[in-house]
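Please review this one:
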Amino acid sequence: MASPVHLSEGKIRPHLIRLALPLLVGNILQQFYNLISAVIVERYLGETAFAAVGIAGTVMNLFIFVLGGCCTGIAVVMASLYGKRDFPALRQAIFLSLVFGASFTILISVLGLLGTPFLLRLIQTPENVSYLAVEYLNTIFLGLLACFLYNFFAAVLRAIGNTKSALLFLVISIAISLVLAVLFVAKMGLGVRGAALSAVLAQILSAVLCFIYIMRSLPFLRVHREDMHYDGALIGRISKFSLVSAMHQSSLYIGKLLVQGAVNTMGLAAISAYTATTRVEGIVLAVGDSGAESISVFVAQNTGAGKKQRAREGFLTGLRIMLLVVAVLSVCLFFLAEPLMHFFVSSDNAQTIAYGTSYLQILCFCYFLSYTGSAFVGYFRGSGRVDIPFIGTTIHVSVRVILSYLLVSQLGMDAVAYATGIGWIIVVVFHSVMFRRFGRMDKMLQTLDEEAAGAQAAAQETGAAAEEPNQPMTQVFPSADTGEENSKEE
């Protein structure tokens, strides 16, 4: 039987590292999968198909990250219940979240199938790229329920501190998916639809493996008939956390979608460069996302256990680790930017390589801001203040989109890099202000709680002291009957 992790006890740094490493490896493997599948498409189907998959990926991620945001919010609720050791409520939350999430996924799948052509026109996708992107996206949307189920079961495992098992299943499914991608694209000639189909089949396999593992190895998470009932307060809490987290993630990708529109006005070379850089950037940002997720689970469990000070210490420890990691990554990426572009794009496309290299090198000086913001997101989300990351991301997206469109005609793709960095600066300032503000509020509430507890204890001691003299008085001073008996004896 698998043993869950109690994050409210023990040393903080080892807990965070044990949480983050499987998440990090999983996120990086997922990005490498996206990277390799993109290379397969470029090598066998050409630059137009490569650009189409890149644009389709931006649209697809809008929907996938809505689902991922929902599952992240659900994980926070479940981690808090697990921290309280309220297992009946935890099982009920699993049931309600599964029903709510599956229904929501079916709805947005239909919306995706109907709205894809409009979205592609909105971001000014060239006609020769658009029809391939539609073909890719239709396959993804038909399999979107599998994506939700894997993310949901992985969220359940994260909530109890078990990040290793989901990683194992992800590794298996990615390996099979890459084999299928080569088979479908290179051997069977299924084109971009074959690349999408391999991804869908991988998600189905991951979801099935996670479900089997939970049912067999974690009996306290098995939902029974008595857990399958409606709870208005619990579904309200789940809905709030999941929908706000989904809006947070979707606003991020709506921004990327709009920025893609600015890039699309620069032609095929810029589109291909942006497709390649987003693959590289995805790996870098995946490290920050892993740190944020580990902080979120740690903070949620400790908040549920009533250990808010330990939750803040966990955030600060996680932030220090993340800043150390991003310093190393930024230096490496600065010097490897051009070789990485050559990995994605053939040497004949000199303009594409130049665009991408410059973009990546500019962002190397800004990634520490992104990681700082990610750490704050993990803290606020885990402590239940899910609205703060949403507001911060909305500010970042607005700044990034506006500046990209204003500057792209003068600076080209560099405009997107500068706009992204400026947006991160503003977000970090906003999160820092909110962190200090809520820190003061928490200390004030803690002081009031301590004073109230002290007053209650003093009142209890006073009451006990008032009762103590009555006991010996009945023993020291004789009653009338006792006095009479004594006088008789005399």
Notes: The first helix runs from residue 12 to 45. Residues 153 and 210 are 6 Å apart (CA to CA). Confidence is low (pLDDT under 50) at residues 471-490.
